[in-house]
Design a protein that fits this description.
The chain has three helices and four strands. The chain is of the alpha+beta class and 137 residues long. The protein has a four-stranded mixed beta sheet with strand order 2-1-3-4.
């Protein structure tokens, strides 16, 4: 459950965050052919929620600063990994996905930058959902 907004400052901050996400989503043209990044909330703990929001904000800043257009960013509940920081799942179109657990803002930006530029580095770790590839990590 989200934290209740108790002041105009909090409302304005939340509005700015929503505007940033809308700007990014307007760039999405073909969801089947862009990289998807899911930031997974590992628990309902207030500190964990704050850390997850910081990771998302850092990725949004990266997308804006580097004018990245081939990425879709999602926030989701992902209770499979515990920790104080969220999971980061990267989907490479027509190849598969990989999940990193307990990722802070700095590490998330590093991973997104690295794998947006060169998906070949993680292809051997990718797992597809139809069971035709093995996870070999």
């Amino acid at each position: 459950m989200s934290k209740k907004i108790t002041s105009i400052e909090e409302l304005l901050k939340k509005g700015k965050e929503c505007e940033d996400l809308i700007k990014i989503r307007k760039k999405w043209k073909d969801l089947d052919n862009i990289i998807k990044v899911k930031v997974g909330l590992p628990s309902k703990d207030e500190m964990v929620i704050k850390n997850t929001d910081l990771v998302i904000k850092a990725i949004i800043e990266l997308i804006e600063v580097e004018n990245i257009e081939n990425i879709a960013l999602y926030k989701t509940e992902f209770l499979g990994y515990g920790g104080k920081f969220p999971s980061l799942e990267i989907f490479i179109p027509k190849k598969g996905n990989i999940v990193f657990g307990n990722v802070d803002s700095k590490e998330a930006v590093k991973l997104v930058k690295k794998y947006l530029k060169n998906t070949l580095e993680i292809e051997k770790f990718l797992v597809d959902n139809n069971g035709t590839k093995q996870c070999n990590h």
